[in-house]
Amino acid sequence: MTAHTPPTPPFRDPQLPFAKRIDDLLSRLTLDDKVSFLHQFAPAVERLGVDAFRTGQEALHGVAWMGPATVFPQAVGLGATWNTDLVRRVGEAVSKEVRAMRALDERVGLNVWAPTVNLLRHPLWGRNEEGYSEDPKLTSAIATAYTHGLRGDHPTYWRTAPVLKHWLAHNNETGRDVTSSSVRPRVLHEYDLRAFRDTVEAGAVAGVMPAYNLVNGRPNHVSPYLREHLRTWTDEDLLVCSDAGAPSNLVDSEHYFDTHEEATAASLLAGVDSFTDHGTDGSKIVARVRGALEQGLLTEADVDAAVRRQLSVRFRLGEFDPRDDPHAGTGEFDTPAHRALAAEAAEQSVVLLRNDGVLPLAADTRIAVVGLLADECKVDWYSGTPIHRSTPLEGLYERFGAERVEFAEGVDRVLLRTSAGTFLKVPAAPEACDEVRGAEGALDPALLAGRTDLPPLTADADGTELALVDWGEGVLTLRAPDGRYLSVAEDGLLRASADQPGGWVVQETFRLEPHGNGHLLLHLGTGRHVCVAADGVRVAGPDGETRADPEVFELIVVESGESAVTRVTAGADVVVVVAGNDPHINGRETEDRTTLRLPAHQERLLAAARAADARTVLVLVSAYPYAFEPGPLAAALWTAHGGQAAGAALARVLAGDVSPAGRLPQTWYADDADLPDLLDYDVIGARQTYLYFEGAPLFPFGHGLSYASFSYADLTVRVTDGRAHVACTVTNTGDMTADEVVQLYARAVDPSVVRPRRELLDCRRITLTPGEGADVAFDVPLSAFAFWDVARGGPRLEPGPYELLVGASSEDVRLRATAVLDGEPTAPRAVRADGLAAADFDEQGGTEIVDRTKESGDAVTPAGGGTGELLYRACDFGAGADTPGVTAVTVTASGQGTVELSLDGGPVLASVTLQAPTPGPYAYVTVDAPFVADGVHDLRLGLRGPLRLAHVGFSG
Prior knowledge:
The protein is an alpha+beta fold and about 950 residues long. Among the domains are: about 10-60 and about 110-315, Glycoside hydrolase, family 3, N-terminal domain (TIM Barrel, Alpha-Beta Barrel), CATH 3.20.20; about 410-560, Trefoil (Acidic Fibroblast Growth Factor, subunit A), CATH 2.80.10; about 710-820, Immunoglobulins (Immunoglobulin-like, Sandwich); about 830-955, Sandwich (Jelly Rolls). The longest helix has 21 residues, at about 85-105. It starts with 17 loop residues before the first helix and ends with a strand.
């Protein structure tokens, strides 16, 4: 007999459209199968030959968390390149390494959680390193390039499936799972949604990840915007993956729902398709979905909708067509091309902030290199482990010769003496440590951090001289002479066991607390003090159970950092001070910064360098902007942590092998006083970012100098067929080949509402040889000149003059011209017919937007239940002043609350008061009051007390 071969199921047939194949596979899955797919770690379905699948592989600037990989500059550094072609190539390289690593390790996922497109609205945000820019146009352009690189060019099969983070209006780590971002409609549509929308519409995005925070009082994981906006931007199925632990936050920290079944159902109905919660354990999510189904909160069709979107991504990744997947054999990993690309990206991201002619450095320059970052190549939370590393010091040694370079880290060298007269002692590293050193001799942090087999610190008569590194705000690290950082493992003992500070909870940071005639040493990771016990130096046990009393240490400074700087700068022509941050300390995920200023210790090192008889060059290697005094400096540069090639790239720029052409992707403010509150998301009202900031920045958005000079000429502007065509000629008038970033901005000359001072429309990075000129053309849709008109609930191009500005930064404008655009004229609000949605105000003071219901809509409340003001311009009350009008106010209140109405800044003409609380925050009542008005007026509403205003209606 001939063996019967079962027919190929339709979901395995590559000749069928994906939609039909997904229908077939869905029909074969049981409800239990489908529910299990809703967790991040979806199990295999063996009877169908369907493999396990997990969402989530971090790939922000290289493959993260999975061991050695090519490490590119941080995202903010890629943003500083203003080069979409470069960033696309970086995305290609990263996705190829994902595929290559996946072939060796099935834990590596193809659904990559990158890039981060949150706008860098506030420079104190701890995750500033993860975003591209404060500007939505630049952010979307860079993000689109990166996603296209991650996706690949094949028309059917994707190399990886990018997921954008973090939806929406997320710029604070302080209380990030409980704070609400109050985002008025204009800010929502003109600012926060734009970076997501433009990138999604470009067609290379597989999904988004909601953020931990709330927006307008409603958690992002139940946001109606997922349905109302996100999924209307593309015909592709978008996979919405929750952030880690966020589904449980809806009940546990936010208290938005009473039960996890309610919260899970609401998330699924809002559009969340994959729940990242409880690590690899999917049982809790499965139980919650099952409970929601049993309670009638969900139907199987709701589950199917989410699973369909998951399967759409899996089919696009070629999972069910291994023989047809063009990316299945990708093996490009740590190739010479990837290493060269990392170097190119690092070079292109360097921004020259100031230069009085000292740069580039002559070949015979005697250089003193000082600073905490001078001999470091830092990685961040979303980095892979670099296979190759280059520090600024190493780069300068290689470029100028070790004999011309002197180095001092500039840290304090200290001894810690105990009350018994002994000193902390670091035992020598056992020979076994040599086995965990990488190819270039660096200790591998993945193998050292948290180790308990190394000997703990002790106390003896000699002790060990430690490097005390002060990172600011009282946070310090302690390092042994061989470079190992003091760390605390799970057993509570102190060991020299980390190559760098790191980890979700950093175990390498301490604080010295004055105590009597000495100091207590507080370990910040555990929150416990260091003591000297019989089994070694350790932190006190939990709940006050100590094996010894906290030790009181005397701090003995053997050499101060300033003295070390003075020692090495004596014979230098130039002092290069390399300052900045450690990406795991004082500003990172879970921790916002508190100031723009450099740490006090680094400011002292800078002052010591300036006191030397040499010219001072400040190099800032940091994940975010700083405020400093540039006047006394001969030159200043900034680069984000530039990945594995950072040091060599910086040395090539300093030497003039490469002309710097990075541009600032966000405003550098001069002082903390220039900043709004971290939680004030109203970029228009608070005049935030270069778009609205009215002060004098330290360095403006788009700023960056060059070793060459460029002339701009022959600006032409032509408006036809719904587009503005702008062109000019740019010529390299310098004596070296260099890149220039040509930037096009616009501003409305006479707007009816507050509009940006100038707004980026497009940019182009070009390379020109000496004397070479290039024609640069921009083609801009007229929709780019529109704003969100709250009176009509949509975008509107206002007619009138618009200035087109072309130049080298937002403030360095070289050419300008005016174009008069046709559009829709301003019309008064027809308030008698339509009333006013409370959130559609033109200006506000002292208010915040909250959720009208848990499912959708907005209301407005006085901040903190106090008083607030709302202004609605040009309200048309119609004719008929003889007829008394009626105001219908839709409102809730938790106590006595009043809404006051006045016209054109005049006296209160009507007020509506709720004397008693309503049954709950969503139990709206409509209260009438007489109000007489006709004609067109500005309407002002005063909100008094703990109320939530949803709508105001008028009739006559």
